[in-house]
Amino acid sequence: MFANNSKDEAKNKLLLLYIFNKFEIAITNNQITDFVMENELLNYFVLQQFLSELVNTSLLEYTQNEDHYYYLITEKGKDTLNYFKDRLSDKFLSRIDMLIEKKKKILLKETQISANYKKKSKNDYLVELKVIENDITLIDLKLDVVSNKQAKTICDNWKNNAPDIYGEIIKLLID
Predict the structure, then answer these.
(1) Sorted alphabetically, which InterPro entries does this protein's record hold (predicted)?
(2) Contacts of 20 (CB under 8 A, 6+ apart)
(3) pLDDT digits (tens, 9 = 90+) for 78-121
(4) Residues near 89 by Cβ (< 8 Å), separated by ≥ 6?
(5) Where are the domains of the chain?
(6) If we measure between CA atoms, which residue out of 108, 83, 69, 110 comes closest to residue 18?
(7) Class (C level, CATH) for 6-88
(8) Handedness of CA 23, 27, 80, 89 (dihedral sign)
């Protein structure tokens, strides 16, 4: 669906509103760009133009949360979508719903569990691990380790096992 006239532009903006509404989570520019490009919904330049226009008309909000900027659909955007949604075919929306459900699971995992490390000095690395649920930080753990290899291993293990590790920490603290 590439925009070539005002009717197509309106449908594509509705599609973007639909996508943001369906995701139900804040999405970064990279995340929405990846989703749209992977599924060949719009070209990059048209997408960026439409995102800017949707923000300028207050249908989307571009806001900062910690270190990242995110898009969120506004109430005005939801109202607009509800009013004009019938202009998008049910068959097309069903396809989009399926694509969103698959991507949403990946995005939720990415936004819920974070693991990063940085070098502080020659043999000193700071590892930062987090689990966030519904915008509430459940755990924010910082560790000093002596090697890049240890830091990377800890981050990889956290990304793959954070719910289990978090559960064990809570169990150890409570018992």
Answers:
(1) DUF4364 (IPR025374), WH-like_DNA-bd_sf (IPR036388)
(2) 27, 32, 60, 71, 72, 73, 77
(3) 999 999 999 998 999 999 999 998 888 777 666 688 889 998 88
(4) none
(5) 6-88, 110-174
(6) 83
(7) mainly alpha
(8) negative
